[in-house]
Amino acid sequence: xLGEDVQRVSTGLGTRSEPPETGASRLGNVRRVGEKNWxxxxxxxxxxxxxxAYYGRAMLNLRFGLIGADRASLFDMRVAIVASDxxxxxxxxxxxxxxxxxxxxxxxxxRFRRFRDDxxxxxxxxxxxPAAGFIPRASLCFVDAGFLLKASAxxxxxxxxxxxxxxxxxxxxxxxxxxxxSRFERRCIIEELAFMHRLAAxxxxxxxxxxxxxxxxxxxx
Length: 221
Fold this sequence. Notes:
This protein has helices spanning 2-10, 23-65, 90-107, 109-118, 145-150, 153-171, 181-201, 207-219; strands spanning 70-74, 77-81, 121-125, 132-135, 140-144. The protein is an alpha/beta fold. It has a domain at 70-219. The chain has a five-stranded mixed β-sheet with strand order 1-2-3-5-4, with helices on both faces. Strand 1 and strand 2 form a beta hairpin. Helix 3 (90-107) crosses helix 6 and helix 4 packs across helix 6. The two termini are 33 Å apart.
């Protein structure tokens, strides 16, 4: 009996039969698909027009905010640090960033090289929002100062891998359409998981974080 129940579930959810599709229902399906594609085209066209102004304004605001920031070079990448956002300890913030990037370089050289090729500037500032982010078309990644001062080298490295995946997608010329956001995030979290496997091979305990990331990926499907 149990075997028959399992077989019914696996072969079509029992004995339920679907009503035959009529010409009207087929036409309705085609119309719904057509409307969905049309709306998608409108949204994407609007995004192509609006995005340059939006990201341009973001870059302009960021540049004004970086006036007087401490600047350095790290692994051939430019680094800008707003000293007031890190309690005046720009050197300490730079060392924390160096430790995270060194961990990425030592545990996953290929991913580190790709990050260095795709991200040209790293900004450490008070983002008043996410722990980190990437600005498309600018090859710029920002890290929240509060997060950087509290995170471990491994935690910061994982976040940088995530933003590096966004940078790689951007460098490939794929526009960050709003309707593709969940697909992009899923790809970036998969990159995080791959990097965590490398960290686990070094003896770092990342099992709980990996389980959380797997649940997040499942929710984004």
